[in-house]
Amino acid sequence: MRDNLIKYILGIADNSLILGQRLGELCGHGPNLETDIALTNISLDLLGQTRNYYQYIARLSGNNKTEDDIAFMRSEREYINVLLVEQPNDHFGYVIARQFYYDVFHYLLMQNLQNSSDETLAAIAKKGIKEVSYHLRFSSDWIKRLGDGTKESHQKIQEAIDDRWVYTNELFMKTEADELLINEGVGVNVLDFKEAYYQKVSQVLEEATLTVPDEKYYQKGGKEGIHSEHMGYILAELQYMQKSYPNLKW
Amino acid sequence: MKKNWPLWEVFVRSKNGLEHRHFGSLHAADETMALENARDVYTRRSEGVSIWVVESKHITASNPQDNGELFEPAQDKVYRHPTFYKLPDELKHM
After folding, report:
1. N or C: which end of chain B has fewer CB within 10 A?
2. Domain boundaries, chain B
3. Which residues of B touch A141 (CB under 8 A)?
4. Residue B2: pLDDT band by 50, 70, 90 thresholds?
5. Closest C-alpha among A221, A130, A184, A132 to residue A8
6. Span B7-80: which CATH code?
7. Whether ipTM exceeds 0.90
8. Chain B interface, mutation test: which of A34, A96, A135, A139, most B Cβ atoms within 10 Å?
9. Residues in chain A with pLDDT < 50?
10. Bridging pattern class, strands B50-55 and B20-27
11. Which domains, from first to last, does chain A contain?
């Protein structure tokens, strides 16, 4: 039971960690000062949430495990984030498309997780949903702004929306840990809001004068630890300090 | 096409009951973006409870060249300042 709970929490937390890391890459490289700060703010929100989850896992694991061990000392196959969040920043349209696809999901997940019978998870969700509501507002506004902006911005955001679409379905694939914890009343059944997810996504895309992709072929693997070629690079940067100087503290 | 977004001035009310104060300026394409940018740039360390943004071009400012006629006449009229009262020691923060 404990191992499954840990696995369930990792399934949520790893998404926040990797997306936070991806956004962190933009620090000092945003398209302008204001957007740069906004994106790194979101990154910090996500990393803050990640810490809450990892601290909880560390408590559950015992053996003096720390949040840093969980964040930095695992091998690639042990990270179970979805493929969507590890996709590269490429251009600003890709940053926004990835963020939007994840934010809609994240918001619905947090909304449901607040009712978890696990008090710690419910509390993290309650705290997190305010941040996530803002993330969703930010990314939805940018989708509309780019879609309904110039010819070039429309074409670029449509390109990103199309390319990242294939990663959305994985968000709704249930793992073994999911199934077990849903029965316990701890986990959220993601299928309960799959329809709401695609409705919300379509609604924003249509408002942005964008075409909703209808591709039926989807990518998967992240939840089983089978990642895209990008993951190794992310981890190399993320883990470098802890692996070179074990137990290093700021 | 203009390359830069227009400039906006940001006013933040830091607490209920206090007035909005000028915090600084930023660039944004429209008022929604200006509010979001203001939130991210100026209130991320929980500095505020309310934000106003106004496009800088809507502000009419006095001309520094006119400072003579606008402000100097007040300088030699010390009697306009309430500095001739003796305040009791118990009164603080005046």
Report:
1. N
2. 7-80
3. 32-33, 36
4. low
5. A184
6. 3.10.20.520
7. no
8. A34
9. none
10. unpaired
11. 2-244 (1.20.1260.10)
